[in-house]
Every structure is written in structure tokens, then in C-alpha cells.
Specification:
Two copies of one chain form a homodimer. By secondary structure, chain A is α+β, with helices and mostly antiparallel strands. Chain A has a four-stranded antiparallel beta sheet, covered by helices on one side. Chain A has a single domain, classed as Alpha-Beta Plaits. Chains A and B meet through strand 1, helix 2, strand 4 and strand 5 of A and strand 1, helix 2, strand 4 and strand 5 of B. Strand 4 of chain A pairs antiparallel with strand 5 of chain B, so a sheet runs across the interface.
Chain lengths: ~90, ~90
Amino acid sequence: MVYIVVVYDMQADRTRLMLNFLRKYLTHVQNSVFEGEVTEGDLETIQNKTRETLKSDESAIIYRMSSEKYVDRMVVGEDPTDDARFL
Amino acid sequence: MVYIVVVYDMQADRTRLMLNFLRKYLTHVQNSVFEGEVTEGDLETIQNKTRETLKSDESAIIYRMSSEKYVDRMVVGEDPTDDARFL
């Protein structure tokens, strides 16, 4: 397993395309940011699907850590993941 | 030194406030994403200044790694940092 953070920058009216597939694998932590633990296979799928989805003026960065323990997460302002606790 | 990635979500007409101060410490890698190596002191300044800058419906996440070596960075689509190489 690896821990990844995906940030993307795309046209506002097209973000739903990324939301719909990324939420199958990851947690939605901010408007255009997802994170979570996935298999190497999932990561490959995410990379391929991201490549297919983005148009030429859009981009995504996938940060990959071998484990969540190598990263600390500090939230300033409202933490959107708080909502998830009450679902 | 620590390696950080800052992602923020704020009103489009106010993003300049974050851009202006974050670019003093970090590299601008995507629309609302900065990253780079900073001192613990810089990180504290960045946290405080981010807290002061954001309004209640806005947020930022700061991912902190003890070193850049713990994170791999994969770019899908255009890499905005490519521009920097030619400056």
C-alpha cells in the first residue's frame, strides 16, 4: 500500500469527472484535493484515468509516500473532512 | 528543515493574498498549491499568516514531511514548474 495526495486544477464545470472517480479510492479533503491509502494497482489506475480525463490546459499532481506515517497534516480553517465524521 | 506542500481553497478574487506571501517561501506548483523546503520557523510563520489570511469559509491544508526524500511527485498534464526552468 502507498499513501497518496492528489491535487488537480481543471475547469470548474469539469471537476465532477475527477470527483466521481477519485472518490471510489480516496477521501475528499478539500475542493480539488483527495488523499488516502491505495494499492500500487489502484495508483496505476488513478494515474491512467487522470491522464485520460484531463484536457491539455489542466493538470494534476500526485504526491506519493510509502506510508501515512511520513506525513503530518495540518488544517487551517474549516476541515472539510470533519463533515465525514457525522455521516 | 522540513518539506511542506500547501494547498488552499479560497474565494478566487482573494487568492492573490496567499500567492503573495507563500511565494516568498515556496515554489508555486499549481493554481492553489505551493511546495518546498522551509525551516521550522518559516513553517510557523506560514501557519500563522495562513490563519490570519483565510476567512471562515476558506481553508488550507499543510502536509509536512521531514524530508523531500519521503515523497515522490508525479505530474499528469502540464507541469507548471516547467516554466521555472527557463527563467
